[in-house]
What we know:
83% of the residues lie in helices and 0% in strands. By secondary structure, it is an all-alpha fold. Helix 2 (47-83) runs antiparallel to helix 3, helix 2 runs parallel beside helix 6 and helix 6 packs parallel to helix 8 (191-217). The longest helix has 42 residues, at 230-271.
Amino acid sequence: MKDSIDFGSMDISTLFRKLLVPTVLGMVFSAIFVITDGIFVGKGIGSDALAAVNITAPLFMIATGIGLMFGVGGSVVASIYLSQGKRKAANINITQALVFSTFIVLVMSALCFCFVGPLGCLLGSSDRLLPLVIEYMIWYLPFLVFYELLSTGMFFIRLDGSPNYAMMCNAIAAIFNIIFDYIFIFEFGWGMMGAAFATSLGTVVGGLMTVIYLTRFSRNIHLHRIKLSLKSLMLTLRNGGYMIKLGTSAFISEASIACMMFLGNYVFIHHLGEDGVAAFSIACYFFPIIFMVYNAIAQSAQPIISYNFGAGQPDRVRKALHLAIRTALICGISFFIITFLCRQNIVSLFIDRSCPAFDIAVNGIPYFGVGFIFFCRQYDRHRLLPEHRTRSTSHHHHSSAGSGIHADRILCTSTCFRSTGNMVGCSVGRIVNDSLYYRNLFQRSLHGPPTMSIFATWMHSLKNSATNIKYWKVTYRPY
């Protein structure tokens, strides 16, 4: 299972490529995991069911965000420990990350399950969609923890030098999801229950594969028993706080997408009804492909950056960072072109051309696609250097979300943008986010030597990352 990977000496381009290819394939399978569910729901149950699934999607994004937060935080710390030869400390760290994230998601799932009806209304469901929303949530909320295990475990498996196994976790989960979707929806006629149960079973398979690997097959890192003494538990709680700090931007990235979907559902159902939500859900189903590719780029570069930072090789850190951001930018431009040219084919995968939501989706998706270019910049900027944190990160994400909200309201209430306003608003939010970031960067550069803005962004991020990790290395205690 272990691949021939040396984070400290292998050529950066070769190392990045060896991590990127299986990671992208794994993420594509993960996107298929989501998209297949949408295709089967749209074709087998109807556009109302598609809208109902989209209304519940923010919960999935939050659970995944929690997994990514602890995956990023735990893998950054473990990477540095491994580069220093402290394998036991790395093992303790990844175990703490899994325990923390699992506990949080279990509590969240239990609370959501107890108030499933009010939660459906809070998420923006109409009276017509509410029974479908409740039925879907009942059958996937109990399995939400496996989404988190899959998201968190991927980081540790790649850190152990097995990106191909990480890819297989996503691929096998997606294959099971496709098989169960077809059987439960088309053969058994279970409707929303079948769609939710199929997705949940696929995720269970992927989540268990990650746990089995870390307990039985890993070579460099594996799960370690946590002591139950009061002192040990207090240190575990404190270390969990460090991991949250290091992984906050990953969670904020997921939460901002969840916020976009949540607000979009509200706006569309208010102005265009259930057909508007169905059209918006198609854009949200297609978006995971783009999101997962950016996620793969960030996850491929992250262990290289963290390991070489801990090993004191800043030149390799910069080279990996530059390579990843260039790759993300090229992908963003390519995705926009594909979205614009193939929009009708994309929409027809989910619903029939006779459906009222079809024209709304076809007209709106190109506007939504403009934001892909800018999303790649803001996503990878914060994910590649997860230690660059807190105030500035939160400010820019909140600025983006706020700009998107106002753009949604203005554009949706205007006549010419009535059917596409929210999708334009999502892109405007991302554009304003990057504009604010580079405006602040330019203002700071006036007090220092002139420099290229993108290079200044990278160096500014590296400077903050170095400061945070140096502070962490002095204060962090694994046990």
